[in-house]
Amino acid sequence: MGSLLNPYLSFDGHARQAMEFYKEVFGGELRLNTFGDAGQPGAEGSDKIMHGMLTTTDGFTLMGADTPPGMEYAAGNNFAVSISGEDESSLRRYWERLSDGGSVSVPLEKQMWGDVFGMCTDRFGVPWMVNINQHEG
Questions:
Q1: On the chain, which terminus has fewer CB atoms closer than 10 Å, C or N?
Q2: 3-class SS at 26?
Q3: Contact 45, 66 (CB under 8 A)
Q4: What is the pLDDT of residue 70?
Q5: How confident is the prediction along the chain (137 residues), in pLDDT tens digits per residue?
Q6: What is the CA radius of gyration of the chain?
Q7: Given 3.40.50.150, 3.30.70.260, 3.90.230.10, 3.10.180.10, which CATH number is that of 4-132?
Q8: DSSP structure string for 35-97
Q9: Tell me, what's the pLDDT at 61?
Q10: What SS3 class is residue 28?
Q11: Which residue intervals define the domain Glyoxalase/fosfomycin resistance/dioxygenase in the entry (predicted)?
């Protein structure tokens, strides 16, 4: 599978409703994971969406999440462009080029879900997420 480029939307506590709405509009398969699913059950905001992904039969991919607990929602800055896939060398090259001259908010490194992930804003103010899928075994 090649790399996938898609929008990633941020919400202020209503990602579940928004992603379910987009599923009604576009159809397809919707997967939702909460902050509680990621090891924070019972904590404030544990029912909020840490990661949602809608894939459609038309080939659309739309991702979204709630602002993490403890972080302030930035109205007007509620999207990022996400690049994900398995081609580690290409994705690392994209990361290096996108982050060069910009700012890194999450370094490109292994995350709790097992993938290598990073977030940066390029020199033109566009936010990017890079996720390198890791397979165990």
A1: C
A2: helix
A3: yes
A4: 79
A5: 688 889 999 999 999 999 999 999 889 999 999 988 877 666 777 899 999 999 998 888 999 999 887 788 877 778 899 999 999 999 999 999 999 999 999 999 999 889 999 999 998 888 999 999 997 64
A6: 15
A7: 3.10.180.10
A8: TTTTT-TTSTTTTSEEEEEEE-TTS-EEEEEEPPTTSPP-TT--EEEEEEES-HHHHHHHHHH
A9: 94
A10: coil
A11: 6-130
Tokens matching residue 77: 């800055």
Q: Is the four-CA dihedral 32, 56, 8, 112 of positive or negative sign?
A: positive
Task: Copy the structure tokens of residue 42.
Answer: 């019972």
> Which strands make up the sheet holding 127-132, listed edge to edge?
29-34, 49-55, 61-66, 4-11, 79-85, 127-132, 116-121, 103-110
| Domain spans, the chain | 4-132
